[in-house]
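[job 4471] stage=fold_predict status=RUNNING
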Amino acid sequence: MSAAPSGVTRAEVCVTAIAECFRDDGETLANPIGTIPMIGGRLARASFSPDLLMTDGEAVLIANDEAFEWPGGKVVETYNPYRAMFDVVWSGRRHVIMGASQIDASGNQNFASIGDDYQRPKAQLLGFRGAPGNTVNNATSYWVPNHSPRVFVEKVDVVTGVGWNRAAEAGPAALRFIDLRRVVTNLAVMDWETPERRMRLRSVHPGVAVDEVVAATGFELVVPDDVPDSRLPTPDELRLIREVIDPAGLREKEVPS
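[job 4471] inference complete, writing C-alpha cells
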C-alpha cells in the first residue's frame, strides 16, 4: 500500500481504472453507464483508445471529449437510431459498464430487487433492463462506487447479469460470447483472470490496504501474493479529466476525497 500522490484524488484514480477497461478495444461502441464510467470512457478515447465510438446518451454518435455538456455544440459522427443500436448490441460490438446492487464471486449481478421472495421484494430496484443480453453478447465490466459486503455477496438475490458459472451451466451457446472483464470500485479493481473464473483482486487504489478490500467483500476473493497499486493518471490524462472531460468536477461527488 502506498499513499496517493498529492493532488490526485481517489475519484481520478477510479476514472483512470475505468478508462483502462477500454484499452485495446478498437472500433467498439463504448457504453459506460454512470458518472465515473462516462468520464473514464471519454478519457480512454481521448488518450489511448481513439477508435472507440460513443453516444450522446440519446440518438447520435459524437466525437466530443466532454462527458456531460457540449457548450460548443455536438460534433456528430453519425445518427444512431434504435435499430442501428440493436444491430451493434446483438452483433457484440459493444463494451458496456453497468452498475451492480449485488455481485458474487462468479460475476452474477443483480440490480432488479433485494430479498428472497421476488414477488414481495424488500426493495424494488431497476429491473432486468438489458443485463442478461449484455452479459451473454457483449464485453461487460462493472462500476461499484461503494465497495461493501452488501454489494459483494456470497449469493445474489436475483440474477440479472449472467456470471461465468451460470453461463457454463447453460452450455456452449451461453459461453461462446460471454466476456466479463473487470469490476472497478472506490477501493480496488477486480477481474476473473483465474482458471476457475472466480473474482480476483487485480489492484488496490493508492492508500487502500488489501485487508481493507478483503473485509469489504462478502465472499473469499482470490488474492495474489503481490497486489499492485492501481495506476495513476498521467499529467496529460489529469489535464483532460479536469479541464476538458469533467470541468465541473462531478466525479468528486460520486467518490468524495
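[job 4471] summary: DSSP finds nine helices and twelve strands in the chain.
[job 4471] exit 0
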